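Hey, can you fold this one?
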Amino acid sequence: MLLIDGLPADQIPITDRGLQYGDGLFETIAVKDGLPCLWQRHMARLEKGEQALGFTPTDKQQLWQEALQVAAGQTSAVLKIVVTRGSGGRGYRPPSPCHPRRILSIHPWPDYPAEWYEKGIEIRICETRLSNQAQLAGIKHLNRLEQVLARAEWDRPDIAEGLMLDQQDRVVCGTQSNLFLLKGDQLLTPRLSTTGVAGVVRELVLESAEQFSLKPRLTELSVDDLKQSDALFMTNAIMGLCPVVRFEQTVYELKKIPPELMMFIGRSYLAAG
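Sure. Predicted structure:
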């Protein structure tokens, strides 16, 4: 099912600024038993993105009702919400005020291999680098060409994710996930002050870390930091928390990741609301 501004439709005007310029935002949300998961966290990030881009805020209660309509009857699915600036404006100059366009669609739940969670995944470094732009850091805007180019770099089925660096060779994130590493009781993740997306499960991990005797810290990380760590794991709103078993020649022990943390995130990231 597809809704555009609350109505069933499958076309948008070619003048839409999301199509013309990537002038918009999106959220990718897990759906369980007809209910969107981590909804409040997704909406908080969407609102932050609207503020950063100068959008007229969308009505979040209206979005909720539309999300329920699209997700109705779905046992497990993926809900995608796209909010563009709509149409109008002269060239790059945005219209003022703008009239955002809401696009909601439902997609099949991906069947991630069980062994990803049981045995861990292998990851690699991408050659494509992320641009630094503090105004866009943290938000989930529609401009994803860097991730598209990075993901096109490999097609080996045994490599599940690629790490992306910034212009200063600092590790930022995966092509579609956030990164955490463990050093003793230190839980480290990139700061994301100049690039990258601040994931909702990343936020959940940071907030809950101390429950599991971990000390969370936002910092700058190098490739060597990853190779010298005790454990790595990746997170996003659809796969939850996925441990890393191999990065290049470094092999990690999954038991270094507190199993209580893995179970907690496994339950919590699929919680409604």
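The helical segments are 17-21, 39-53, 60-71, 114-119, 145-151, 200-208, 223-227, 259-268. Let me know if you want another pass with a different chain boundary.
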